[in-house]
Amino acid sequence: MASNKKYWKSVEELNGNSPIVDKLRNNEFVEEIPTDEFLGDKDKLSSSSTSRRDFLKYVGFSTAAASLAACEGPVIKSIPYVVQPEEIIPGVADYYATTIADGFDFANILIKTREGRPIKVEKNTLEGSKIYPNARVYASVLTMYDTMRLKQPKVEGKDASWQEVDARVKAGLSQAAASGGQVVVLTGTTASPSTEKIIADFGAKYPGFKHVIYDAVSSSEALDAFQQVYGERALADYDFSKADVIVSVGADFLGDWQGGGYDSGYGLNRIPKNGKMSKHIQFEANMSLTGANADKRVPLTVTQQKYALVAVYNAVTGASVGVPALDKAAADAVNKAAQQLKAAGSRGVFVTGLDDVNAQLLAIAINNALNSQAFNPAGARMVRKGDAKAVTQLVNDMKAGSVHTLIMSGVNPVYTLPNSDEFAEALKKVKLSVAFSMKEDETASKTTVAAAAPHYLESWGDVTIAKGYYSVTQPTIRPLFDTKQVQDALLSWSGNPQSYYDFLKGFGTQYSGGKSWNQLVHDGVASDAAAATTASTPATGGFAGAASQLASAKAAAGAFELVLYTKTGMGDGQQASNPWLQEFPDPITRASWDNYLTMSAADAEALGVENWNVDNGGLNGSYVSVEVAGKKLEKVPVIIQPGQAKGTVGLALGYGRKDGMKEEMVVGVNAYNLYTNFKAEQTVKLSKVSGEHEFACIQLQRTLMGRGDIVKETTLKEYNEKDASEWNEVAQVSYDHQEVPATTIDLWEGFDRSIGHHFNLSIDLNACTGCGACVIACHAENNVPVVGKSEIRRSRDMHWLRIDRYYSHEDTFEGDVELKENTSGLLNSKRTFEKMENPADNPQVVFQPVMCQHCNHAPCETVCPVAATSHGRQGQNHMAYNRCVGTRYCANNCPYKVRRFNWFLYSENNEFDYHMNNDLGRMVLNPDVVVRSRGVMEKCSLCIQMTQATILKAKREGRPVDKNEFYTACSEACGSGAMVFGDINNNEDTVTRRKEDERSYHLLGHIGTQPNVFYHVKVRNT
Q1: Digit-coded pLDDT (tens) for 217-269
Q2: Residue 841: how many CB atoms within 10 A of its CB?
Q3: CA 355, CA 367: separation in Å to the nearest integer?
Q4: In the chain, which end has fewer C-beta atoms inside a 10 angstrom radius, N or C?
Q5: How confident is the model at residue 63 (pLDDT cuts 50, 70, 90)?
Q6: How far apart are CA 707 and CA 701, in angstroms?
Q7: 618 contacts: CB under 8 Å, gap ≥ 6
Q8: Residue 34 Cα to chain centre, angstroms
Q9: Cα–Cα distances in Å, from 991 out to 500, 643, 726, 1002, 1003?
Q10: Kind of pairing between the strands at 681-697 and 619-628
């Protein structure tokens, strides 16, 4: 029988009407823990005296307290479809083929959309695709969701309608026609046949009309040379997969040289097959991405590079042009490279990035003499068309007052022109100026009409990246704002009633290669091989004269040579407001949120310039003033760069933008001010100035310090002649008093992993160029937050995937190993390793992508007190975010240091005013991946949402998963073929064959973690 006794804990409970009793009954915690007060504010948190132990006392390990402290999120009500669109299935991604062509980056891509929102860029691998996306292209989807975009047109700084704009422009054009004033259209390289046709039709009505093409980062010298030889303004294309010997003088062809996109062909021939691989020799001033990947890199000043080029020309063509002597080491390297190139014959290729017509002419002559298979003038690239002389003439015409109407699209000359002040002043003399721009940038803010332009993902268009390749740009979302394409406007202003879509649909059939319009839009690409098989007969005269002029180059006495370049992450600066790219670490310096002057250690010492680390782990440095032709940049920070040629300095373009930018994005200095005469090489004066600059550098260690079990490397000779056990050595341990391979010893109980799927990721260090496309793709797919410069300085970056860059202390990594092995004794070893932290003047470089290794015997899983991290049967290490209480034990126990702790709530927090802090920016978030809250650990999941989607798709279609059907964000983004993901239980998957390769090894394999990520020994062709 149940008891009717009444139990009570206090006398107050005997009072049935007491409000205190009701409050206590309904509240587990009498006083709410004020977590928002100190966890939501980074300043209060950093100044708090609350210890970690006390904090855990307050919140405990209970689910309720953990939820209160770390996992509580706002409730957002969803509104369902009233009528569901037929083409949208909730929870299932749609993909649309399109093309990016912003004047600097060109690529054939697929756009992943969810419920009508574009959220990610992927490669288009169909036949006819020409260039794979780079890091900037992967990040470009975020640019569409920028809150600083122009949301409607403006006339004289005031919001206006398109009817008002049309009326104003048509009146101005009529006035120009009546008065005989000049009408000019200024664009970047569109590479669009339909746009060029529309511009030509528009200008036919106006006498003296000009279409001026302006590339912010000029390739004008190379275009002039190609036009002089082949009679067409274009650039030769290259296929580095057809080259056994590559010699480059100042050409960063793995970066942005002549449009980029060469890494896929390059990577194919860098993996040793049948004992062979290509050999790459690089002569350059700055340490570039291409130079870092070379087998042999020789630092030379710009003047010395010109001498080297003439020497190669003499050796290959048999010419005898007199050239000043280089120092013995450089001369030997040049002669050896020239002889190897000549011996390779048609399997050799020569490229140069020098901004000199004569240098570009000699490159053409050398490749023609070699009959290079990799050199393809017939399939010329159309991605650069700018004419520096025409731009200079336009500025002069504007200053003279002869330009009545100036219509600009895809350009920002007030920011990018070296004489931008002159242009801005001359713009005042133009009666009508129109700028089609996504933002009210430096130029649009000074024009009569700021015409709001759509993002390329909201636009129609066509692109001819190279002869024989035609592609279509299609909108993947309705325009977010009241925008209009320049093509639609020009059609309207020229009296053509057609929309641009209708015009394009009729125009594109002549380039479609027989495809219907619907098929062309579906595929995004079409190819016509016949169009790329013929080239004009090259002119052969003038090469000797070009060589003589190049050989007569003289360096300015007592001055430095400045080499301006574009960073892999920032390019020409169009996407300077993109937080993914600002936080993207430069592959070479590993610094983000900045540009800086790179300088050799010897020159830095002579100038009294320093770099040093401070208590919080941040890197600091000195300032210098930089002066070119009377123009000066004050307080430019300096990074001491191993491999920088003595007597030279480097500075990245694309930074220092101010208009149309959030305050957090205004970083760096505008190097375009020093881009005199559109030449990347300048004579510069430097002087140290007072001050201390704070860098956001995420890799403070510089060298490998001889730790050969992290990056394994060998030479092609050893790879061919020695057993794999010598160059891919397995660590030995003592077991029963006998030395046995560490991989055979297991302290854990194993289980059968042969049933179902078992995922592995292969990373080939030979093919990895360090480009970072995988880093940005991971950002997009997995909702990785941006934390800003201040947090990066505290080593709190949230990248799930990092690309470590290591230098050698000796001239080669082989020398490092020898130095390490010859060291004995505790004190001697300590001194040696301390010394080895300093890189050589011209170090070898290696890139190593590192993410969670998904260990089958994971050290993190055993130390988690709440079982937030555990192992899945398919080989993935799982994270249950709502269980994690942020002890960080797992991070301490991880030998690979790949776990990231959410110090703050990065979403909807005014302290982190990036894309996650506004409704528009959050549209890019992937709904398949949770946005992590503060106080939890996160790390690479091997894109579990993607693997499960592939399994479910196959299940829905009633079939097994096909071979090579699985992929992750990083493996999909890798254009060089370095990363391959798959199921090792499927014998037909590429990753299975890669795992069996004798070059494969596990990172820190001797500690017994048994990772599901494996690497391939790097082989150098010495």
Answers
A1: 999 999 999 999 998 999 999 999 999 999 999 999 999 999 999 999 999 99
A2: 15
A3: 18
A4: N
A5: very low
A6: 13
A7: 694, 695, 696, 697, 793, 794
A8: 41
A9: 46, 35, 24, 14, 17
A10: antiparallel
